[in-house]
Amino acid sequence: MTRPSNRLARIVDSPLFTSVVLAVIVANAVVLGLQTYEGVVDRYDDLLDLLNAIFLGFFVVELALRIGAYGRRPQDFFRSGWNIFDFVVIGVAFVPGVRENSTLLRLARLLRVVRVIRLLPDLRILLTAVARSLPPLGSMPVLTTLILFVYGMVGWSLFGDAAPKEWGDIGSAMLTLFTLLTLENFPVYLEQGREIHPWSWIYFVSFALVAAFIVLNVLIGIVLNSMEEARALERRRVEGGPVADRIATIRAALDDLEYDLMHTKRPRE
Question: Which of 252, 269, 221, 258 is closest to 68 using CA atoms?
Fold first, then answer.
């Protein structure tokens, strides 16, 4: 006979259940958006509050079903960081003082909308990629600052007297170069520099090659590599799902067997 927890697990993991939860999250977001319009709040404030209460009740039931899907081992629910996030986001609405504070209550409701990240695999991969790219990106600000400082000092020496607004000191020069990282107004600065020094195009072209192209391409490469790692992690998580389910089923069966052995009365001799 199939265990109820297994049937419940199949229900909460089904695409239909996920679609319903996603639809409720979107509806919750729409209601939160409507509450930013004073005219709508004046006319439908009670209805909007009722809908928010219904959404919260739905999410509580959803959370209870997902915890119940773990059967005799509900603590396994908290082995996933996303599950902990859902538990905190939903449970924060019941923290004393939150419901009495309108700002905190709005923030708590807004956090429930953020749960959409867990339901959309592509968005979850993107967020994981961003998180994994942060450590490699730690040295990028140092490298960028060094490039801006070196080129800023050269720019100050070349153009500081003729264009003090853009190059009058190291701070202004670095800020100008930071703007040039995006190549915004690059022809304007190039033409201004050529009017001061005819060979200044070498300065601007080299900066564009070193900073705008190399630095940005390294940044893009780090993000793309993190995206591939995140996709690989998600693939392993999905492929490992059936194996994990079988392990959980075997573990639950052993727990049932141990429970039956402990509560079975021994025959009298």
Answer: 252
How many Cβ atoms sit within 10 Å of the Cβ of residue 52? 19
CATH 1.10.287.70 is right for the domain spanning 120-269: yes
Using alpha carbons, select from 141, 131, 20, 21 the residue that is nearest to residue 81: 131
- Matching residue, tokens 């600000």: 141
- For 142-201, the DSSP string reads HHHHHHHHHHHHHHHHHHTTT-HHHHSSHHHHHHHHHHHTTTTTHHHHHHHHHHH-GGGH
Amino acid identity of 263?
H
- Tell me what the mean pLDDT of segment 104-125 comes to: 76
- Read off the pLDDT of residues 196-205 as tens digits, 9 standing for 90 and up: 888 888 998 8
Residue type at position 1: M
Cβ-based neighbour number of residue 41 at 10 Å: 13
Q: What is the pTM of this model?
A: 0.57
Mean pLDDT for 9-19 is 86
So where are the chain's domains? 1-119, 120-269
CATH, range 1-119: 1.20.120.350
Local structure of residue 268 (DSSP, 8 states): P
